[in-house]
Specification:
Number of strands: 5
Largest sheet: 5 strands, antiparallel
CATH architecture: 2-Layer Sandwich
CATH class: Alpha Beta
Distance between the termini: 22 Å
Shape: globular
Helix content: 25-40%
Number of domains: 1
Strand content: 25-35%
Radius of gyration: 13 Å
CATH topology: Beta-Lactamase
Structural class: alpha+beta
Strand order of the largest sheet: 2-1-5-4-3
């Protein structure tokens, strides 16, 4: 397991997330979604599954912003993954799909040399 400092929402980097195994990602206190080049969910950690109330089987292998996170399928989140090859941004956001409005912080991470893009969700 990575150290506490390395796993903090603001400090973890894309290389650390990509190198973690599923058990380590599941132990993080925030949601972690890993997306391939087509924005299909490849990683969906247990923390996010618990907060969202959606089983990984419903998310993994499907276009994330079309099937699971329509409220993020916009210029502020999904379009940034499409437009910005290098991305490390934290944005305040309000989740609204299938829940009462919930304030969160999103962290968007992408780099051309890493095969997955990561969306972190801190509640």
């Amino acid at each position: 397991m990575a150290t506490l400092t390395q796993t903090q929402f603001d400090l973890v980097d894309i290389d650390e997330l990509h190198a973690m195994d599923g058990t380590d990602r599941d132990a993080l206190p925030y949601g972690v979604i890993g997306l391939d080049a087509d924005l299909v969910a490849i990683v969906y950690n247990a923390t996010e599954a618990g907060f969202a109330g959606v089983r990984p089987e419903r998310v993994i292998g499907a276009p994330f912003f079309e099937n699971s996170a329509q409220c993020m399928n916009n210029f502020m989140v999904a379009q940034r993954f499409a437009d910005e090859p290098v991305l490390d941004a934290i944005i305040p956001y309000v989740l609204t799909l299938r829940m009462r409005p919930t304030k969160v912080r999103l962290r968007l991470l992408a780099r051309p040399d890493v095969p997955l893009r990561f969306l972190l969700i801190e509640r």
